[in-house]
Amino acid sequence: MTQRTRASSHVLAFLPTLDPQALAEVMVAFANTDGGTIVLGYDDRGRPTIDIAPEDIEAALRQAASLTSPPVMATIESSGDSHAPHLVVRVPRSIDLHSTKDGRVLVRAAGENRVLTGEEIRHLTQSKSLGDYEAETVPAATLQDFDDDVVAEYIAKREARTRRKIDLAERTAAGAATLLQEIGALDMRGQPTVAGILLFGKNPQAFLPQSGVVFVKFPGVEPRSEEGRAGYGRREEINGPLARVIERTWQVILEEMRVGAIVRGLERQEVLEYPEFAVREALVNAVCHRDYRLRGRRVEVRKYADRLEVISPGGLAGYITLDNIIEEHFSRNPRIVQGLFQWGYIEELGLGIDRMIEEMVAAGHPAPKFNATSYSFTVILSNVRERRVTQNITLFAPEAGVLPAGLTVNERQARALQYVREHGRITNRDFQVLCPNVTPETLRMDLADLVEKGVLMRIGEKKGTYYILK
Questions:
Q1: Pairing label, strands 267-272, 259-264
Q2: Closest Cα to residue 161, out of 348, 389, 408, 373?
């Protein structure tokens, strides 16, 4: 099995042995998060470790399920990949809260299983108790309410992404009914679900008027018109299935974004007011993760003179908080997320926030700001471009107001912070060059301490990890 580009993630796990306890822990973590695939007999780099017979997988799966409470449901399926193991274990996301027999509640984060704290368990329990709204059927909706052109487009994009032909007699909703049931767009009786209507409906807003996006442009930095009264310069309501909503909203934003220019060498290059990926990611996240149970309010995109705000109805889902939003991943609407992922609107599951921050910082902007309340989540992108500071001056003295009052750093950490200020980021390798006579583990702990103190923010995972100012 050649797996150079794939490693364990929040939806994929490699287990080199048939250890029922290790298998049970991954099953619990996947069931509590977004589900996932377990590859048995391979290490984390995708290299085979032992030969496993199908009956061995079945026995291990039964034993592992007995070590979970309530028992986690999982299936043994074909991987569908000629270069991969023939059989893998699929664990669906569960509406129940699962734990290991010793009482640990695990979730999947950054390719590892993590034990939740008591407060996190409470938040996750509340989220699961609300039910699986996107899987509920839509009263009065039928298969005829699906748009055949949108279904055909989805199938074509899915084939291109997976590089596998989908064998269907027809590319219509009726011809693709089995596939639509598999992805949760139809229930087992052929009734359209909320996810199905949102993804493929001819007119989703006829059934779910709260879906769609409202774009509003204000000329200044306050929600007022040019005359100073309450009002706006432009307002657009964008309707349709989610793929169309995303594309049309992006076009409206693009029309209103200013275009600047930079000169590199002898070439003049145009640059957008905001990095394209950051804007699209904020928009896609809002559409994917909003709480569609909340009626009377749509996703809102507000463009001001100095910032862009994307407001999604519904607070943070599951155990996600502002403190762990970069490292953790939990989908309120996993079927919608998977649908838009296969469509190509999501590049890599669980890594969008990382790259949004990276793109903003790389373009010279401040990192995005995130605001969360019980009923909304807002991403704020600033169009200010920060000037890089390269003078050899003390920038991180607590008395200068850069570090929180009472917070001290050691000499190595001060050098790391100076480096971040000058270069925008620092990696473990950069830090080792700065402090060549210090062990890598000590330097790693120095950076982890700065993250814990709220001075740095960790972006990425494993070899792609780097740190920026929080």
A1: antiparallel
A2: 348
